[in-house]
Amino acid sequence: MGVFNKIAKKNKLTLGLVFPLEAYSGSIAKMENQEYLAKRAEELGFKALWFRDVPFNDPSFGDAGQLFDPWIYMTHLMNHTKKIALATGSIILPLRHPVHTTKSINSLQVLSEGRLVLGIASGDRPIEYPAFNQQLENKSELFRDSFFYIKKLEGDFPNYASKFFGKTNGVIDILPKYNKKTPMLVTGHSGQSLEWIAEHSDGWLYYPRDFNTLQLVMKQWSAALSIVEKKWKPFMQSLYVDLTVNSEVKPTPIHLGFKSGSAYLNSHLKILESHGVNHVVLNLKYGSRPAEEMIEEIGAKIIPNFS
């Protein structure tokens, strides 16, 4: 898990960016200049590019993500970058067949020489479930079933009987083979207990919270790891930011984040690091400046403080 170790280090914080690398209003981004911005992010020292899995545009939800199929778009951006991690935030396991998911995982890992980090989730848009002929009340069980099916498919000629997705009987195999472990991070709770996440995942991907709540969450994560007798596993989170031109502007709240100058963003990230957060995925959607300007400023003023 070489690339994973570069973004997930104990007592250290690294930064990533989620697509679209764009500030935009409404639910649909323009998706312009993304290849150049991905290259610049890598050059500036961001450790991961994150790709969402949004099967349908639900106008009431207000955000259609990066528009493209995540596997195809990751492959496209793989060809425009060199070593930066390609991470999913997150693949919706109940709405994708685990055989197809595993085929995509192995293909991208082989083609990228191991740059994939897999964030996984049960989905945050209930309206999508009927389109896949799945029952929302089964989402927790669907998630576990898909997770364990994927794990079984990592071996040769797997023998697995899935309640929801079929069975293999040990007489067929999946190609290509990727002979290393793909890191799998559970997003939110995905219908699972924290102990289940601590035992089976390679880390936890959560949401931004105030510092007092974050302290409580980190204690819960540490306790869950202890209960299942696991050593440290990384904790990652998302964060919406809008950087002002004036670097000294104090923070004001925006959806799941804040608007501020770079000085406060830097101090905020330092506090997250002190609480044990290992990776922060920055989302620039609500930016009042072009994403390129914010990426350049973060690269120049903030990333060097977390090297």
Topology:
Blueprint: H1 2-7, E1 14-18, H2 34-44, E2 48-51, H3 70-78, E3 85-92, H4 98-112, E4 116-121, H5 139-153, E5 161-162, E6 166-167, E7 184-187, H6 194-200, E8 203-206, H7 211-227, E9 235-243, E10 252-254, E11 257-260, H8 262-275, E12 279-283, H9 291-301
Parallel strand pairs: 1-2, 1-12, 2-3, 3-4, 4-7, 7-8, 8-9, 9-11, 9-12
Antiparallel strand pairs: 5-6, 10-11
Largest sheet strand order: 1-2-3-4-7-8-9-12
Whole-number average pLDDT? Answer: 96
User: What string gives the helices and strands in order?
Assistant: HEHEHEHEHEEEHEHEEEHEH
Class by helix and strand content? Answer: alpha/beta
Please give the alpha-carbon distance between the first and last residues.
20 Å
Oligomer: single chain
Shape: globular
Please indicate the percent range of residues in DSSP E strands (runs of 2 or more).
15-25%
- What's the Cα radius of gyration? 19 Å
Major β-sheet, in short? 8 strands, parallel, barrel
Helix content: 25-40%
Total number of β-strand segments?
A: 12
The residue ranges in which pLDDT falls below 50 over 5 or more consecutive positions are none
Q: What is the overall number of helices?
A: 9
